[in-house]
Design brief:
The chain has 11 helices and 15 strands. By secondary structure, it is of the alpha/beta class. Belongs to the Gfo/Idh/MocA family.
Length: about 350
């Protein structure tokens, strides 16, 4: 199999990033089809990426005889059904996180995935494919930090996107702050510790945009977690970072500690001017994790060609979503919630 023919559903900001990578940055992959409800997005795919098949119906796209795989970057609530349909059509599937928003729906999807062991399924936890996080993971696995005791994660989107999010939240449900954003950090906690999360206590506050209270959405949230071996994890998630896109992770162990991106620096440039000494920072996730997005898609294509399973699978999606839902329940009840 020389070239993997891929169709993509969803051409928003992240969808365009994946589409561009498949079309231009991933050897052995060819973007042949795109699906969107927005005509301008389909025109973009044809004009800029050379897509030859465009669809407004996902069902019609996965019926194309010219596809080997699909990349799902649609709204979160559509993921389970679209995964199941693609698997039943004999296609390999890459799906953005989360794998779903409802546990029973996810379990139903996992049954379908397991029924087609010859097909590759990979979930989009791209931070596992970031060079800095991989370096940190090797240190943990080699015992350089000793036994982990605390994991702290920050994931805060730039404030420049808040007004757009409020408008989105008024017409749609994102899945909530923890399912939509913290799920990446939840996955990192599981990945670094190799343990499951057993209980959570979460809270939140809407300060700059109190209208989110009526929409059951959070501007800023935090959670304290206990893992099955009593390791502690602390998450902070938000949508209102004035300085840019802030993703930071700290690992504390019995022999030492490390931090990944304690300052979200864009590059190695330092500017000296009337503003003082300034270090530019990353402004959005496509910029900060540009290489990670490419690396995860390369892995997906390699797994198809080499007939092997990727590291990130459906079980990671299920377990992370269980924790995210527990965090939301904790916010709503103001109680510690056990993760079953």
């Amino acid at each position: 199999m020389n070239e993997i023919r891929v169709g993509i559903v969803g051409l928003g900001r992240l969808g365009k990033a994946h589409a561009t990578n498949i079309a231009q940055n991933v050897p052995g992959a060819k973007l042949v089809a795109a699906c969107s409800f927005v005509e301008d997005e389909l025109e973009y795919a044809k004009r800029e990426l050379g897509v030859t098949e465009t669809y407004t119906s996902y069902e019609e796209m996965v019926d194309s005889p010219n596809l080997d795989a699909v990349c799902i970057v649609s709204p979160s609530g559509y993921h389970p059904e679209q995964i199941r349909l693609a698997m039943k059509k004999g296609l390999h599937v890459f799906s953005e996180k989360p794998i779903g928003l409802d546990i029973e729906d996810i379990e139903k999807t996992m049954e379908v995935i397991q029924a087609y062991p010859e097909q590759v399924f990979q979930l989009g936890f791209m931070r596992r494919y970031d060079e800095s996080y991989q370096y940190a993971k090797r240190m943990v696995d080699e015992g350089a930090l000793g036994e982990l005791t605390v994991i702290r994660c920050y994931g805060i989107d730039p404030s420049s996107g808040m007004e757009g999010f409020v408008k989105f939240a008024q017409s749609s449900y994102s899945g909530g702050l923890f399912s939509d954003m913290s799920i990446h950090d939840i996955d990192l906690v599981r990945w670094f510790s190799q343990k499951e999360i057993s209980r959570v206590w979460a809270m939140g506050k809407n300060a700059a945009y109190p209208e989110l209270d009526d929409l059951n959405e959070l501007e800023t949230g935090a959670a304290m977690m206990q893992l099955e071996d009593k390791t502690m994890a602390i998450l902070v998630a938000g949508r209102n970072a004035a300085h840019g896109y802030h993703v930071e992770t700290e690992l504390i162990g019995t022999k030492g500690m490390l931090r990944v991106a304690s300052a979200p620096e864009k590059n190695l440039v330092t500017i000296f001017d009337e503003n003082g000494v300034v270090r530019p920072t990353s402004q959005n996730f496509p910029e900060r994790f540009r290489d990670a997005f490419v690396n995860e898609m390369k892995e997906f294509i390699s797994c198809i060609k080499e007939k092997r399973r990727p590291e990130v699978g459906a079980i990671d999606g299920l377990q992370s979503t269980k924790v995210a839902i527990a965090c939301q329940q904790s916010v709503e009840t103001n109680q510690i919630v056990e993760v079953k």
